[in-house]
Amino acid sequence: MIVFNKPYITELEKEYVLDAINRGNLHGDGYYTKLVSQFIENRFKTNKALMTTSCSSALDMAALMLDLKEGDEVIMPSYTFVSTANAVVLRGAKPVFVEICEKTLNIDPKHIENKITKNTKAIFVVHYAGVSCDMNKVMAIAQRHNLKVVEDAAQSVNAKYKDKYLGTIGDIGCYSFHNTKNYTSGEGGAILINYDDALAKTAEIIREKGTNRNQFFRGEVDKYTWVDVGSSYLPSDILCALLWAQFTKIDEIQKKRKYIYDSYYMGLKSMEKGGKLRLPIIPDYCESNYHMFYILLNSNKERDYLMDKLKANDIYTVFHYIPLHTSPMGEKLGYKFGDLPKTEDLSSRLLRLPMYAGLEYEDLQIIIENINRILN
Ligand SMILES: *Cc1c(COP(=O)(O)O)cnc(C)c1O
């Protein structure tokens, strides 16, 4: 059986987790938490990185930090994970869904401006599959309309737009270290505050239950107290120990994923030439982290047929997001099927192939052979 996803865990993870336990402090912001947050700040070049329990909680924090409230609107793609929209809805604000580009399945900058109203406060972009949105265009629109930009870079840790790492371009970036992502601690995330020191201070307070505990530990105030609204978003140091082991292998993991991506690409190229499917596209401005390998079939029927046939051969592939505007919750928010035809069409034809650093060469060849055989 070839599974869809598997975390890349070696002895090193076990060693660091055990060490974290032996250190005796399992709470947040301990020894390993400092290592991983400093690694993010130095390698990806951001002003401030704070570890969180998930990307969902990083997005929730972002919505709190931007003080979103009822009546506010936030521009985002409909083709995304529920957490991007939940963060906004939890504040009582409204997600305004925008079409995606056929090329990258990322938000289409052409469609952003006509959705901006006097109530629009922010743009939440999603870098799908480790491939960047067209950030120069997004940032220019945001500047023109005085909007904040939040990057949902859950899938895009260690990927780049031009010379900048994803998550470090907008005002705020959100990372995921979930089991299914390139670098994982099972559950985990980070929030990046890229420019604004005041916003970084707000983030620290929100993350520490609305207290100025971090300032107290730095000796900036002489007692710590409740100063604002907040909650608890700190991961245990055990999770950060696991993640630290993953970060020491960051280049190795990326290299293995690139190899798999390139193998799929070459192995399926003739199918694309024959008009059976479309392969993913990485624009020149982007350096991918090879989070995903998807193919676009010609119809929903052909997609489901291929998925079933592969499953019958013990190969597990999966489709992806049901567009949020067509979901039951999307309907409650006033959207309906037909609102974003391109999003609906693309998502109905997309199939994700097994992709993880530990995928064996033989299995990779079996998958490619099977797809070629079934589609012919
Ligand atoms: C995985 C993912 C999330 C959620 O990440 P968690 O760490 O599981 O909360 C959010 N947005 C996108 C685009 C994702 O792919």
Largest sheet: 7 strands, mixed
CATH topology of the largest domain: Aspartate Aminotransferase, domain 2
Report the top-level CATH class of the largest domain. Answer: Alpha Beta
Ligands (ions, cofactors included):
pyridoxal-5'-phosphate
Structural class: alpha/beta
The low-confidence parts are none
Give the overall form: globular
Order of H and E elements = HHEHEHEEHEEEEEHHHHEEEHHHEH
CATH 2nd-level architecture of the largest domain: 3-Layer(aba) Sandwich
Please identify the oligomeric state: single chain
* Largest sheet: spatial strand order: 1-9-8-5-4-2-3
Fold and architecture overview:
With 376 residues, the chain is α/β, with parallel strands linked by helices. It starts with 10 loop residues before the first helix and ends with a helix. It has 13 helices and 13 strands. The longest helix is centred in the C-terminal third of the chain and has 24 residues. Helix 3 packs parallel to helix 4 and helix 3 crosses helix 6. 40% of the residues lie in helices and 14% in strands. The structure holds pyridoxal-5'-phosphate. Pyridoxal-5'-phosphate binds next to helix 3 and helix 4.
List keywords for this structure.
376 residues; alpha/beta; Aspartate Aminotransferase, domain 2; Aspartate Aminotransferase, domain 1; 2 domains; 3-stranded antiparallel sheet; 13 helices; 40% helix; globular; binds pyridoxal-5'-phosphate
Topology:
Blueprint: H1 11-23, H2 31-44, E1 48-52, H3 55-65, E2 73-77, H4 82-90, E3 94-98, E4 120-126, H5 135-145, E5 148-152, E6 160-161, E7 164-165, E8 172-176, E9 189-193, H6 197-207, H7 213-217, H8 237-247, H9 250-273, E10 277-278, E11 286-287, E12 294-297, H10 300-312, H11 328-332, H12 341-349, E13 350-352, H13 361-375
Parallel strand pairs: 2-3, 2-4, 4-5, 5-8
Antiparallel strand pairs: 1-9, 6-7, 6-11, 8-9, 10-12, 12-13
Helix pairs in contact: 1-8, 2-8, 3-4, 3-6, 9-13
The chain binds pyridoxal-5'-phosphate (PLP).
